[in-house]
């Protein structure tokens, strides 16, 4: 609650907090839009595969030439990480292999790293966080993205002495979305391909938001960081309004949909018959908590909390998340407090590639949001037990077996280059953490 005051004191005594940004896409651009208005924080270097695109992004979000001129632009993240004028590294490429490599380099350089690329965090975040702790540096989720905001709500509830029953986010969901491809995605969004192209919208990325993959990835990040459990059957996406959170997201024994307490779930802004849920939480996050004592239940009623019929379960929610526009919170928390805004503490949830259609041996998988597979959230123990193929590695690899629609893919179904560093790091993470 005093980050701004800490920043001003730091700027007066030592100069600004200097950030190196890797990846100037949409998230990075939203962060960059806030930098000229954030006294005491500067971007000293930006690395992107296309440095000219990064310069254009700066201009697009409103940077003037005097903001752009001092920044070092390059296509080499290693050079950025090594620079003396970079205090905090922000990894925003969205690529699991790149994200892991960049985070490890930053940790080796004893620089805090804010991991925007949640795909990388879910693939190997527990091991990255362990390496960072051993090096005495911060490895952090990105505030503004939903996982960090959910973890904040969970922490709030626990710090207040409440039992966390469920936590998660909202999205637009129907069961048929699991089979969506980049060719069908714009119909579901109500856009033409031309409109999407004019808006610079990437079909495969937006399809990962729609087909359930992104929701699974984000909830895996939450269970690994917050010590919650992944649902044994995967996310069920129940339709739910903000007013019904305590009634719907409580255990089945108490009239809800949860198989157990202390789990994650994503709620849908659409009923199964396509009707829009009134007062939906499509863009927001929530936590459902249980009163630990009868007096607390009485207080819930006295102070107007919406509860379930028993009065024991209540909820707190945030209707929106501002994505990259809130990233300063993570950067400043790492630089000024030495604290992460969420980080993996164990391997509890995993996201396993699941066939969207009948797949044939010899086909090459096309990754998150593609035409071949979507990502399903599973408990880590189940994923390890079946040898589940992480969705973060289901890109550019060939199938060795036929796989039926709806079937979980395994290591045995694909040809993996065992010399690949990302593969080796993931397998090392599995060995070190097992399932918790």
Give a concise summary.
The protein has 436 residues and is an alpha/beta fold. Helix content is 37%, strand content 17%.
Task: Provide the descriptors you would attach to this structure in a database record.
Type Iii Antifreeze Protein Isoform Hplc 12, 436 residues, alpha/beta, 3 domains, globular, four-stranded mixed β-sheet, six-stranded parallel β-sheet, 37% helix, Rossmann fold, single chain
Query: What Rg do the Cα atoms give?
Result: 22 Å
CATH topology of the largest domain: Rossmann fold
Largest sheet: 6 strands, parallel
Helices, by number, come to 17
Strand order of the largest sheet: 3-2-1-4-5-6
Domains, number: 3
Mean pLDDT metric: 96
Secondary-structure blueprint of this entry?
Layout: H1 3-14, E1 17-22, H2 26-34, E2 41-47, H3 51-60, H4 65-68, E3 72-74, H5 77-82, E4 88-91, H6 96-108, E5 113-115, H7 118-135, E6 139-141, H8 146-159, E7 163-171, H9 185-189, H10 193-198, H11 203-210, H12 213-226, H13 245-248, E8 263-268, E9 285-290, H14 294-302, E10 313-318, H15 328-337, E11 349-355, E12 364-366, E13 373-379, H16 380-386, E14 395-398, H17 421-433
Parallel strand pairs: 1-2, 1-4, 2-3, 4-5, 5-6, 7-8
Antiparallel strand pairs: 7-9, 9-10, 11-13, 12-14
Can you tell me about this structure?
With 436 residues, the protein is an alpha/beta fold. The chain has three domains: 3-144 and 324-337, NAD(P)-binding Rossmann-like Domain (Rossmann fold), CATH 3.40.50; 147-173 and 212-321, no CATH class; 349-433, Type Iii Antifreeze Protein Isoform Hplc 12 (Alpha-Beta Complex). It is 37% helix and 17% strand. Helix 2 (26-34) links the parallel strand 1 and strand 2 (41-47). Helix 1 packs across helix 15 and helix 6 runs parallel beside helix 7 (118-135). The longest helix has 18 residues, at 118-135. It is globular and about 60 Å long. The relative contact order is 0.14.
């Amino acid at each position: 609650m005093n980050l701004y005051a800490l920043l001003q004191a730091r700027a007066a005594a030592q100069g600004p907090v200097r950030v190196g940004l890797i990846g100037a896409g949409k998230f990075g651009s939203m962060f960059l839009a806030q930098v000229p208005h954030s006294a005491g924080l500067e971007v000293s270097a930006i690395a992107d595969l296309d440095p000219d695109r990064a310069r254009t992004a700066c201009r697009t979000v409103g940077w003037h030439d005097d903001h752009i001129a001092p920044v070092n632009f390059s296509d080499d993240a290693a050079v950025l990480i090594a620079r003396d004028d970079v205090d905090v590294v922000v990894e925003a490429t969205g690529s699991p292999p790149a994200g892991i490599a960049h985070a490890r380099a930053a940790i080796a350089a004893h620089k805090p790293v804010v991991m925007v690329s949640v795909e990388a965090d879910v693939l190997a975040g527990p091991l990255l966080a362990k390496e960072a702790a051993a090096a005495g540096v911060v490895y952090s989720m990105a505030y503004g993205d939903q996982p960090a905001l959910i973890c904040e709500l969970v922490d709030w509830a626990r710090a207040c002495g409440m039992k966390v029953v469920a936590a998660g986010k909202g999205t637009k969901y129907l069961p048929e979305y699991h089979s969506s491809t980049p060719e069908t995605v714009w119909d579901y969004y109500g856009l033409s391909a031309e409109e999407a192209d004019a808006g610079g919208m990437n079909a495969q990325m937006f399809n990962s938001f729609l087909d359930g993959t992104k929701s699974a990835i984000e909830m895996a990040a939450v269970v690994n960081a917050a010590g919650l459990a992944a649902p044994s059957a995967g996310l069920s996406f129940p339709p739910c309004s903000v007013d019904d959170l305590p009634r719907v997201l409580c255990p089945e024994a108490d009239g809800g949909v949860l198989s157990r307490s202390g789990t994650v779930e994503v709620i849908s802004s659409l009923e199964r018959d396509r009707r829009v849920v009134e007062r939906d939480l499509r863009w927001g996050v929530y936590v459902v908590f249980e009163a630990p004592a009868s007096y607390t239940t009485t207080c819930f009623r006295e102070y107007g909390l919406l509860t379930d019929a028993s009065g024991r379960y209540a909820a707190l929610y945030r209707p929106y998340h501002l994505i990259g526009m809130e990233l300063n919170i993570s950067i400043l928390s790492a630089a000024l407090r030495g604290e992460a805004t969420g980080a993996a503490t164990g391997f509890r949830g995993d996201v396993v590639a699941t066939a969207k259609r009948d797949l044939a041996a010899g086909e090459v998988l096309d990754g998150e949001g593609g035409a071949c597979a979507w990502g399903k959230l599973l408990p880590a123990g189940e994923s390890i037990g079946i040898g589940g193929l992480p969705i973060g590695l289901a890109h550019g690899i060939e199938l060795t077996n036929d796989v039926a629609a709806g079937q979980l893919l395994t290591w045995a179904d694909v040809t993996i280059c065992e010399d690949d560093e990302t593969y080796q790091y993931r397998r090392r993470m599995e060995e070190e953490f097992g399932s918790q």
